[in-house]
């Protein structure tokens, strides 16, 4: 089946590859010519008015630069075409073929317009496909970016929740320590009051030396009994306190809070950078 240029699919693809190469070189050379004009604007057109001689000098300089660029491109294009013909002739010679060229067809307007239409249709459709492909990739990247942003937001929220939970546990532990400290303080105050009462009793007994000596042994016994009773009371108080639901609950809560703190610190270590 013949293609639009009268060539089979393989040869037409070879033509397309060459046209793609030529279009790339042409685009680069046009950018070079554009830069010549841009450089002129930035370097020479810095005054408000110019004389005829100055304008002539500017245009002559621009003409020289553009002429050189165009001539260089035309020469390079000619050499490139020669290399392309050399490839064709070398392949033909391997099969003992003698190829001929018709130079007159290179200026055939109908054929040139046919090539132009072929280039326009081929590369316009290719550009549309490329644009569609780029648009599809762009949508995929947008979707992926949204997913990453959502994951990052969730991670930050989770970290914030863990930090708040850790603060709550630390505050709760502080309250529990305060309650235990308060109980110890009350017990110490009780012992201090008992000591004060004993000292007061001892001072009152000094009114009479004889009574003091008589009551000293009794007082010592009473003191020992009082100490025994105090120790017994302390043990009893500790025993009763340990048997209360509040103590068991407090102990259980403290154990759970310690476990939660360990778990929270373990989770937080995943979100914090290593030292």
UniProtKB/TrEMBL annotation:
Mind telling me which GO cellular component terms the entry cites? cilium; cytosol
Instruction: Report the domain of life of the source organism.
Output: Eukaryota
Can you supply a Gene Ontology BP term from the record?
negative regulation of protein localization to ciliary membrane
Recorded GO molecular functions are: identical protein binding; protein-containing complex binding
Tell me any Pfam family this protein matches.
Leu_zip
Main localization of the protein described in the UniProt heading? cytoplasm
Q: Record's InterPro entries?
A: LZTFL1
Coiled-coil region(s): 131-267
Where is it located? Cytoplasm
Keyword annotations of the record: Coiled coil, Cytoplasm
Record keywords: Disulfide bond included?
no
Q: Which family does it belong to?
A: Belongs to the LZTFL1 family.
Q: What functional role does this protein have?
A: Regulates ciliary localization of the BBSome complex. Together with the BBSome complex, controls SMO ciliary trafficking and contributes to the sonic hedgehog (SHH) pathway regulation. May play a role in neurite outgrowth. May have tumor suppressor function.
Subunit: Self-associates. Interacts with BBS9; the interaction mediates the association of LZTL1 with the BBsome complex and regulates BBSome ciliary trafficking.
- Quote the protein name from its UniProt record: Leucine zipper transcription factor-like protein 1
Q: What gene codes for this chain?
A: LZTFL1
């Amino acid at each position: 089946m013949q293609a639009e240029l009268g060539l089979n699919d393989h040869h037409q693809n070879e033509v397309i590859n060459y046209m793609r190469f030529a279009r790339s070189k042409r685009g680069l050379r046009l950018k070079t010519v554009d830069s010549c004009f841009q450089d002129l604007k930035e370097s020479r057109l810095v005054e408000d008015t110019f004389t005829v001689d100055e304008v002539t000098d500017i245009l002559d300089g621009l003409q020289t630069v553009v002429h050189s660029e165009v001539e260089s491109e035309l020469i390079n294009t000619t050499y490139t075409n020669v290399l392309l013909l050399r490839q064709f002739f070398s392949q033909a010679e391997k099969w003992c073929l003698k190829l001929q060229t018709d130079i007159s067809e290179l200026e055939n307007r109908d054929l040139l317009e046919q090539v132009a239409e072929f280039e326009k249709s081929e590369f316009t459709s290719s550009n549309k496909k490329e644009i569609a492909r780029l648009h599809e990739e762009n949508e995929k990247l947008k979707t992926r970016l949204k997913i990453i942003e959502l994951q990052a937001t969730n991670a930050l929220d989770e970290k914030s929740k863990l930090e708040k939970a850790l603060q709550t546990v630390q505050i709760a532990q502080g309250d529990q320590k305060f309650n235990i400290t308060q109980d110890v303080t009350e017990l110490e105050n009780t012992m201090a009051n008992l000591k004060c009462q004993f000292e007061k009793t001892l001072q009152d007994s000094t009114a009479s030396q004889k009574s003091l000596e008589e009551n000293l042994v009794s007082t010592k016994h009473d003191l020992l009994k009082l100490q025994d009773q105090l120790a017994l009371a302390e043990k009893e108080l500790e025993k009763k306190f340990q048997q209360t639901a509040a103590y068991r609950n407090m102990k259980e809560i403290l154990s759970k809070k310690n476990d939660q703190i360990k778990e929270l610190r373990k989770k937080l270590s995943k979100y914090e950078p290593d030292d």
